[in-house]
Specification:
Blueprint (H helix, E strand, L loop, with lengths): L5 E4 L23 E6 L4 E5 L5 E4 L2 E4 L11 E3 L5 E5 L3 H6 L10 H10 L7 E5 L5 H10 L4 E6 L2 H13 L6 E5 L11 E6 L8 H7 E11 L2 H13 L2 E7 L3 E5 L6 E7 L4 E7 L12 H26 L14
Parallel strand pairs: 8-9, 8-11, 9-10, 11-12
Antiparallel strand pairs: 1-10, 2-3, 2-7, 4-5, 6-7, 12-16, 13-16, 14-15
Helix pairs in contact: 2-3
Length: about 325
């Protein structure tokens, strides 16, 4: 690994256990994460602490007014403006992070967690970290027994992601590394690996070394030419069960009298590429998709037809000659 790589390992006992993994309660407690939803669905993500306040354009909301209240309680600001005290979802956590880079949308992140087969106790590698949006979803899925190992080369982005993860209480389940992945990953035998880098095909050898046999691989890419290069690399490095997908999410206006699609739609955000890391020595062509096998068979047939046509053309007499060929002496 690059000598400049700096580790930031946070043990499970370095902070109080995340509120996400305490027994669920019907009432809020101090240090709980709360989604405060005001009029017009303007929302704020806060951590409840006694004596503190949230200053908004609707007035000041006191944390003390929220602590010990049932979820769904309405609280009033100093300007008598109401707001709902709600338990935040994973999607809320991801959409309220401070952004320093382009983020992965919740629709893609949730599907990645599903396709990477993550659950409590899983070990997953991520590169790069970015603002920590996907890291949040990965840590949510593998905690409290698993671990996310995330790599980021930019110091400012690394620190931003650390603050975002700490804010939502998921930093204890993440091992953050600052530095390049050019020299590979320190982990071995992990369950899954995700690459969010410009040229993921250059790191497939390192991915193989980190993944367990049969481990899950995924990458997100914005353009088709990048996907093509990655598909070629997956062939060369022994990955099977390859799939390329994209997710389109359409919201509807929840008005009973005139239910209709929202004008805005979360369309194309990136191509998701999935694969499985196979043991070396397996005949990969046998385990490729049916469409891929049909394409290869058709190409082989076309090549055979072209070769046969060329052979016949060479055997046929040249009709342009006026006289037959003389026998060789």
């Amino acid at each position: 690994m690059d000598e400049s790589l700096q580790e930031n390992r946070t043990g499970m006992n370095s902070t109080a256990i995340s509120p996400w993994f305490r027994p669920t309660t019907t009432h809020t407690q101090e240090r709980d994460l709360v989604l405060l939803m005001a009029a017009g669905q303007k929302s704020y993500l806060i951590t409840l602490r006694r004596g503190q306040q949230l200053h908004t354009h609707l007035g000041i909301f006191a944390h003390d007014d929220m602590i010990g209240q049932p979820w769904g309680t309405v609280v009033l600001s100093t300007l008598e403006q109401p707001a709902l005290v709600l338990e935040p979802s994973l999607s809320d956590l991801m959409t309220h992070v401070k952004r320093g880079t382009q983020i992965i949308y919740p629709k893609d992140a949730a599907y990645l967690v599903h396709r990477l087969n993550l659950r409590a106790g899983s070990r997953v590698v991520e590169a790069g970290t970015g603002s920590g949006v996907l890291t949040t979803a990965l840590a949510w899925a593998v905690a409290p027994l698993g671990k996310v190992y995330t790599y980021e080369v930019r110091p400012d982005t690394h620190q931003l992601a650390r603050r975002n993860l700490e804010r939502v209480g998921l930093l204890p389940y993440v091992e953050m590394s600052l530095g390049s992945i050019d020299g590979g990953f320190r982990q071995e035998g992990v369950d899954a690996l995700f690459l969010d880098v410009r040229t993921p095909w250059e790191f497939l050898g390192a991915a193989r070394a980190a993944l367990k046999p049969g481990g899950f691989f995924a990458s997100l890419l914005p353009t088709t030419n990048q996907v093509t290069d990655l598909l070629s690399g997956l062939d060369q490095h022994g990955f099977a069960d390859v799939a390329v997908e994209e997710l389109l999410l359409r919201a509807y206006k929840p008005i009973p009298e005139r239910l209709r699609p929202d004008e805005n739609m979360n369309g194309h955000t990136g191509f998701l590429v999935f694969a499985r890391c196979m043991p070396l020595g397996i005949e990969m062509e046998r385990w490729q998709g049916r469409d891929r096998q049909r394409y290869r068979a058709r190409k082989r047939m076309e090549e055979e037809i072209a070769e046969e046509a060329a052979r016949r053309a060479a055997d046929e007499p040249d009709e342009s000659r006026k006289y037959p060929r003389l026998p060789l002496p």
